[in-house]
Amino acid sequence: MKCSLLLLGIVVGTLGIASRAGAQNYPWCAQYSGQMGGSMNCGFSSYAQCMADVSGVGGFCIANNTYVPPAGATPRQPARRYHAGNSY
């Protein structure tokens, strides 16, 4: 009984200390063709960076549909201006 409680305490303590692994979150993916066998790499921060990677090996770049920008990094939309007499 004491051994199982000790083991449980160690497991709970280890889980409390362990940090959560963060997945890479980048907006562009390279879809390789040819000798690469159709593999995909979603580790590019710009379209130009992705295109430089696929040049010469074959493939294309697509937007990462699972990309979520970091909080506070969203571009600001310009304020809409309404003029008197215009109905929108």
Output the keywords:
2 helices, alpha+beta, 88 residues
Would you give an account of this structure?
The protein has 88 residues and is of the alpha+beta class. The chain has a domain at 23-68. 27% of the residues lie in helices and 17% in strands. β1 and β2 form a beta hairpin. The radius of gyration is 24 Å and the shape is flat.
SSE order and pairing:
Blueprint: H1 2-17, E1 28-32, E2 40-44, H2 47-54, E3 59-63
Antiparallel strand pairs: 1-2, 1-3
Element-by-element helix/strand order: HEEHE
Which consecutive residue ranges, at least 5 long each, have pLDDT under 50?
Answer: none
What is the end-to-end distance? 73 Å
- Largest sheet properties: 3 strands, antiparallel
Individual helix count: 2
Assembly level: single chain
Query: What proportion of the residues is helical, as a percent range?
Result: 25-40%
- Overall geometric form: flat
Average the pLDDT over all residues and give the rounded result: 75
